[in-house]
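EI: anyone free to look at a 375-residue chain?
SC: sure, send it
EI:
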Amino acid sequence: MAESPTPFIMDGHVHMINRQFYLGGDISDQYHDGQVDLPRMRKGGVNALFFSIYTSDDYYANRFEWKQTMMLMDLALRQLEKNQDQIELALNASDIERIYKSGKIAAFLHLEGAFDLDGDLGLLRNLYRLGVRTTMLVAHNSTNHFADSCGSNGKWAGITAHGIEVIQEMNRLGMVIDLAHASDATIQQAVAASRDPLLYSHGGSRYFVNIARNISDESVKAIAARGGVIGLQFGNSMNNPNYVEWLAKHKMAHPAAPSKHTTTFTKIEAVHAAVAKEYPPRPADIPEEVRMPADQMVCVLDHWIELVGEDHVSLGSDLDGWPALAKGMHDIGDFPVVIAAMRDRGYSDERIRKVAGLNLLRIIRQVTERQPIVQ
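SC: here you go
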């Protein structure tokens, strides 16, 4: 029997740059800890990724979010330029295909957390000019001034009138709207307001783990009905009901639970110092007897495919964003474990190609390749 071909792999959510921002170093360094670097990407066969820049909630709480985003963007672009022999910025699907064929990794710039609490459209356009082609609508686990997050009490019952303007401007520019971390109402209203398909870049299913951070079946159906894509996060906390039961039994907080408070700082350097303590990322310790096999992640994919079909499902690992991984997985170099689990489940080569990367490539092509004019 002929060996199945290696699929094109695009990860829809990988934490990049933050480690280097707080601890120094280079994305081409092979670290002994954490989950992501260029050598391990190549080992895992990752061909493209949402190069995700994460502004944590403390920056929003102290109104340093825009400055921090710009500092991270500066480092991201410098790192991409420095390592251009291995990884290259992609602005659309055609770029991704060209970079892939050249043997390099394609980096699709993505913001985790809204670009600005107020949703200033001029700042959004400047991000587009710098090469950002996808951003989250909400401010991570915090509600911003135009859209509710799943991690806070609904202030707007979804999105505001200005939130609709943000969506329309992202549509006009050709930017992929990411609904991860959004409330149910925000997801439903954003889908209704957008002329383009939308992405839920990384999360699990509430069918398996019933937490607000996971996506409901109703929201999966709404996103897919408009041509969108739902991405699977790789962590036990999102996908493993046995782990969640173990946490409850031992009266331990769920790792995805949002923080109940933030600290007030007057200088951004103080926020840097506080956030730096979280690096390098340290996934939660899980007893091996309750750690999920990779097959459990495929169970979640099965559920979504049964709901909406194989054209609307992708992978968004959240690596270096603190996910505790399945048995046999430690970092981005272990992507073949996920591919093998899909094959063991009986997925056809065509289905694996769609889930592993082609569904993400399709939505990027639909949204970005209208050649918008920035004014």
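EI: The domain at 10-368 is CATH 3.20.20.140 (TIM Barrel).
SC: 👍
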